[in-house]
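quick one, two chains, predict together pls
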Amino acid sequence: MAQRLGKYTLCLPSMPAIAGYAAVAGKKEGEGPLGDKFDFVYEDSSAGAKTWEKAESIIHGDAVRRAISKAGLTDEQINVIFAGDLLNQCIGTTFGIRETGIPFAGVYGACSTMALSMALAAASVDGGLAGTAVASTSSHFCSAEKQFRMPLEYGGQRTPTAQWTATAAGATVISNCLGKAAIEKIIIGSIRDYGIKDANNMGAAMAPAACRTIADFLNDTCTRPDEYDMILTGDLGAVGSDLLCELMTKQENIDISAVHADCGLMLFDLAKQKDVGAGGSGCGCSGAVLCSEILPKIESGELKKVLFVGTGALMSSVSSLQSESIPAIAHGVLITGGEK
Amino acid sequence: MAQRLGKYTLCLPSMPAIAGYAAVAGKKEGEGPLGDKFDFVYEDSSAGAKTWEKAESIIHGDAVRRAISKAGLTDEQINVIFAGDLLNQCIGTTFGIRETGIPFAGVYGACSTMALSMALAAASVDGGLAGTAVASTSSHFCSAEKQFRMPLEYGGQRTPTAQWTATAAGATVISNCLGKAAIEKIIIGSIRDYGIKDANNMGAAMAPAACRTIADFLNDTCTRPDEYDMILTGDLGAVGSDLLCELMTKQENIDISAVHADCGLMLFDLAKQKDVGAGGSGCGCSGAVLCSEILPKIESGELKKVLFVGTGALMSSVSSLQSESIPAIAHGVLITGGEK
């Protein structure tokens, strides 16, 4: 039974374990700093499918299958999957997991989806709703560009503040058994909207939400940044990361810069890789970085305490065309190492 | 702590109460059989907004505000809101609840969203994640037509199997306090796809999912249909409802026809109201029917045991244009009367 700490944070006394995880990615992501850490790299970003949406479904389903298999389980043993993606009506997820037969609770949190689905999966395991739950997400550069921006064929120029939607998927299996990584606490964020309207500068729109959630978590738990090995946001990119550290210092009087890292800055080499702008983004970015770079280090003991905060920009193309600002949200999960 | 019954059903021993609820609807819905039962009817479907999307956000936010107020609570006292809608990136919800400051877990289940959000809210209350949680959803005929079908100005003809997306929103406040209606059990469904490709016949696409979830629930709980006052689907409409009863009898050997009702058939008078085709649909349909017609009858004791099964068609315009079939899902909550 979850225990409330302060106003927003939930402590999960059973410490649900991350029993398995997997990350798959596209060619460009495979050429980045984490290239050799993914479970699979699709050299052909179409994954052999006829459309980009179907390709995203394939990589999403692939990550889920691999995570379940690495946990030593079968689809039949999974009680529920919390999953979502950026595509309209979340079809990347729906068609990706259609054949599994796993009870499916669809979630939508834009790029915060990995953290949201993990938080709900962990809470479900802790609350007895599930013995074993999957949390997964995906994004695909081509399906996202087509939907949110321009047809790829148009060859649109990108501003330097824009982020590059990752072609990637990540999945975790969360269970009530023993594990080398566990989810100790969760926090569900609320919407923050500072009036940013530039859809090519999502980092700026999302930074205030990340700031609020991190500050709430630290206040609720009466902890300081130096008690964490890493406070990992996903995906603020270069612009949003700078803003977050500045907001934390100026508004909250908390300096997280020594332990802050961002999935969007880890997925690509911003200096060497072409066109990645301010860094990676998309649900799959934080999903894949977490499941390739972070969770193994928690399992090995290299990282002991990571606060993973997924950030999402909750606008749509329609709301932007209607001159609306970008509401943003950030959800967090505290992942710690060690057997229970 | 939730207890698993059989393979898919969860029993919530704390029996979270429905402490407040509200339904608001548009003009056409207000002219239907439930017209005088809604908390508010918008005579102007634009709700005074400049766009249909903003109108949907207004009615969504309105339902949430009314439900919280009727529960005698303030936004500050709500620990989490589970909510979603049909619009791309769920902007009906996001912009509707943006100002509340309530921690927000976005869900996507198409027209099953009311049942999904209620199931997750009830499980959260039972598991200690929240003392009080809101579950809400909305749909708007004009924003849905524009997004999924044709611009309204086109004046497209509708087939008789097509359903009419409700302009409506429903919200429930679920809490760990006493109440005259309580959520006793929940079931999260899995995706069913019988290969139906006709997006103008969603009832047919969704009936197999409803059949599976209802049969699983009855099997898991070792109960018969005559032990329920009502098995309420939302929103299969006329075509889907007939198919559901037939599937239940032929595939599962369970006759639910004596207790089956459907939100899509209750919202409109199919004989008298123009163009409503096979009945109402859209997330807001089951949300508003539940919160105007059903919950008061449970509170008064007229209905004692209602299995509410929300049904959703998880396709998008893009997946349909790519010749994909329509994956469907159904989630259930068992609502019972009486103080705890």
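Chain B is about 35% helix and 25% strand.
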